[in-house]
Amino acid sequence: MPPAAPADLEWGAFTDDPPWIVDPTRLDWHHGLAALRSATAARTRALARPRALPPAAAACRVAGVLGPALAAWYLTDRRRSRERSRRGLSRRLRIAFERLGPTYIKLGQILSAGEGVFPEELVGEFRLCRDQVPAESFETVRTTVEADLERPLEAVFSSFDEVPIAAASIAQVHAARLVSGEEVVVKVQRPQIDRQVRRDLAVMAWLAPLLVGRIPVAALANPPALIELFSETIGEELDFRLEAENMLEVARVLARTAPAGTKRELVVPRPHPSLVTRRVLVMERLHGYAWGDAETMRAAGIDSAQVLMAALIAFLEGLVLFGVFHGDLHAGNLLVCPDGRVALLDFGITGRLDERGRRGLLRLVMSTATNDVRSQVAAMCELGALPVDVDVDRVIADLRLDQPVVDPTTMDAEQLTREIREMTKSLLAYGARMPKALMLFVKDMLFIDNSMATMAPDVDVLEQTVAILTHLQSRHGDRIAQDLGVAPAALGSVELAGIRSSLGLSEDVQRLTHRELQARRRLVRKRLQLRRTSERRDDR
Question: What global pTM score does this model have?
Answer without folding.
Answer: 0.87
